[in-house]
Every structure is written in structure tokens, then in C-alpha cells.
Amino acid sequence: MQLSAQATQRPAGDWQRPLRAACALWLAAGVACALLAPVALGPLLAATAASGLVFLAFRHTVAFSVAWLLIAGSTLEMTLGDWFGMELLYQPVIATVKAAELALGLVCILRFGPRLDPFNPAFGYLFIFAGGFVHGLHPGLTASDSLRSLIGSAAPFVFCFSRVPLNWALGVIRMTVWIPILTVAAGALLAVAGLRPLFTDSGGWRLAALGHPAFLGGFCLSAIYAGLIELLRDGRRRDLVLTGVNFLLLLATGARAPMIYALAVGLAVLLATRSPAFPRRLRLGLLLGALAVLPLLVLAAGVLPEVRLFNVLASETSNLSGREILWPLFERAADQSPWLGWGLGAGNVIIEPGSEVAERIGSRAAHNEYLRMTVEGGEIGRILLIACFLAWGLHGSARLQRDEKLLMRLIFCAFAGHAYTDNVLISTSACVFFTLITAVFARGRLEADRSTLAARAGQGV
């Protein structure tokens, strides 16, 4: 027993000596820089801080991943941009968030081990990136811009290539449920302090929290999906309450497409699933309660038109919010290179900054991922990327339980519909959504492997 105890303690001792030696050398280098080359002291301190952060992330990978997910879902780039009056902060902050995701993904691969994800959509983006150079990039797109688009497009899928453990998956799923609630709570505190309004007037009053109502709507949609998954598995009243709160927040954002797909997926769960943890009696009660609320919403739509939700119900159900102006420009660009497209990232340069369309619509994005994929990858790239998503969803959900598998495939169908009118692949909400999908698939694999091992052990194999 004494020898085994010493054996278990030996690796810790072996790590402590080189760690102390490295700290001593680093301290000596800092003193030397301060005395002999003060100009190099700043970069050395920055490298020290970065090294310490990487070390902490390696030691507490799950906590760092969950914290990063909350930061990604809080859309800090918009809060900081509003505070300092600089929209130029948006892209650097988003790039930092995605860079942090890539770094955490690499840490997960190093700590938990790599895994092959053969149908991952990142491979589709890699093909579109290469196809752009074969055909020739758009005149307004540089090679470095296309490379940055590749990194940004592939970043939401980086965790798929790691053998993440069960506690990582559970932490991600739980945090996804809490992101809208926490960001709205933080936004309410800022509003009380007079630092930032909680609501914004955009075709009616809309809940914005720390960012933009459309982004918050996307995070609410992911939170509702996560809550429905947990309800089917465990049927806890806490998950039911959190899902209901997130749905109310989604309604307050006035985001039409997320509302439609949340309602569609939620209705399918209430009608088509047979989970014993979420009994039919409770599901029918929720359905009847929702039907009873509908007449009240119709009445409120006529009384409170200044609220975005009711404004949409009353008069803007078919309004495309300027998409009818944006889409012809992207269609024209796609027609000029129909097979291989103009390279990954070309969707960002079709509409020039400061142009009349950009000023009028307030956006340069296509708000249609199928159209953007055609511009960037042509018909070949679009078909390949759609095939990757289809195979990835089917393969990843294959080992889930029956109801969870059905729900995940419904979520992918809703995502395919949502992509027709929104930027669901390039926004920060995509980082949260695909990290949630990664966590659900990972938990399913781990539980299936555990069940297989238990069955083999029971058979004496």
C-alpha cells in the first residue's frame, strides 16, 4: 500500500520540479529584461499572462469552456461598441471570441484526445476555400480575408474534433439554457444604472439585453432547444420553467423566424414524443394552456402595436425587412460564377461599406445562407456543404435515444429552414448553437459506449 501511494504521488512531484525551474527562469528573464532591455519587458509580460491563461485553461478546461460559451452568448462586442461609440470594435471582439474558441478547442484536443469527425461541415468550408483559389477570388476579396473567413467559419465546429468528457457536455448544455436569462439580467442591471437600455425601438419595442434583439432571439432559440432536450430526458420541473422563461424572452425580442421554429419544434415535441419522463398528461396540459393564450395575443396585437411582437402579428407578417433589396444583389453575383463561386468570404464584399443599400438596410450580409453559400462556393460548394450538414446531423444523432434523436433531427430541419432568412452560420449565435449540438452528440456517444460496456460486462465478454 505504501509503494502504491508513493507511485501515485511521484508524477505530481516530477511535474513540480520543472515547473518551479521554469518559473525561476522566467523570473530571471523578466529581471534581465527590466535591467538590460526595458522595451522587451512589455511583450514578455504579455507572453507570461498568455502562458498562465493557457495553463489555467488546461487545468480547468470545462470551466473555461462554459465561461467562454457565456461570453459568446452575451454579445459583448455590441455593448462595448455602444459604450465607446465605435462600431469598429465589433469585428475585433468577435474575432477574439472565435480565436478563444479555437484555442479552447485545441486545449480540449490536447487534454482529452483527438477524434475524427468525418462529416463535419468544416470540411465543406475547406473545399469552398480551395475552390475560390481554383476559380479566382472576387475582386474585392483578398487571400488573407478568405483565410480569416475559413477560420471564422470552421471555429464553431472545433470541439467536434475532441473526445470531450461527460462533464464538459453537461456543462455546455446547462449553460446554453441559462445564457438568455443571465444576459437579460445583466442588461437589466445596466439599464437600472443608466448605462445601456434594455429595450430598443426597431419596428416596435424589442428586448435587446446586452446586444441586439435578433442575436438574443437566436440564443433564446438554442436555449429552448436545450431545455426541450433536458425535458425529454429527465422531465424536471426546473427545466420546464427555464424553457418557459426563455420562450417568453424570445417573444419579447420580436424575432420572427426564431419564434416560428421554436413553436414548430415545441409543438412537435408535445405531439410526437413518448418520453416517460415528460408524460402525455403534462404535455397536453401545456398545449391547452398555449391555445388558451392565443386569443389574448390576438387582442393585445390591436391594443399594443408599439410592441414589436404585436406589430408583427398585426401588420408585418410578410415583411422581409429589406431582404427583397439584398437578395437580388447576391443572386447577380452568384450568376456570374455559378459552379465554384467567388471564394469563402465573398459574401462580405458583395455590398460595399457606406453604399446606399448598406445605409438603408443597416446590413451587408445576405440574410440567406443558401444564397451566400452559392456566392462563395457556387452550386458545387453549396451542395457539398448541405450534404455535410445532413450527414453530420444523421450520423451524430444515430446513437441518441429515440425521442432525443427525433428532436435533434427536427432541430436540424428547423435550422435548414431558418437558414433561408437569417445568418445562422456566420453570427456569434452559431458558435453557441453548434457547441450545443457538439455537446448533445458527445453525451449520446458516451452514454451509448457506457451501455455497450455494461452489456458486455453482464454477458461476461
Strand order of the largest sheet: 1-2
Helix content: over 70%
Order of helices and strands: HHHHHHHHEEHHHHHHHHHH
Instruction: Write down the overall geometry.
Output: globular
Distance between the termini: 30 Å
Low-confidence stretches: 1-13
Per DSSP, what share of the residues sits in E-state strands of 2 or more residues?
under 5%
Task: Compute the CA-based radius of gyration.
Answer: 25 Å
Give the mean pLDDT: 84
Structural class: mainly alpha
Count of DSSP E strands?
Answer: 2
Keywords:
mainly alpha; 2 strands; single chain; disordered N terminus; 461 residues; 18 helices
Brief summary of the model shown:
Helix content is 73%, strand content 1%. The chain has 461 residues and is mostly helical.
Give a verbal description of the structure:
The protein is an all-alpha fold. It has 18 helices and two strands. A two-stranded antiparallel ribbon has the order 1-2. A hairpin with a 3-residue loop joins strand 1 and strand 2. Helix 6 runs antiparallel to helix 16. The chain is globular and about 75 Å long. Mean pLDDT is 84; it is low at 1-13.
List the helices and strands and how they pair.
Elements: H1 2-36, H2 41-59, H3 61-73, H4 76-84, H5 90-112, H6 121-135, H7 143-154, H8 166-192, E1 199-201, E2 205-207, H9 213-234, H10 237-253, H11 256-272, H12 280-303, H13 308-315, H14 323-335, H15 356-361, H16 369-397, H17 402-418, H18 428-459
Antiparallel strand pairs: 1-2
Helix pairs in contact: 1-2, 2-3, 3-5, 3-8, 4-5, 6-7, 6-16, 8-9, 8-10, 8-18, 9-10, 9-11, 9-17, 9-18, 11-17, 12-13, 14-16, 16-17
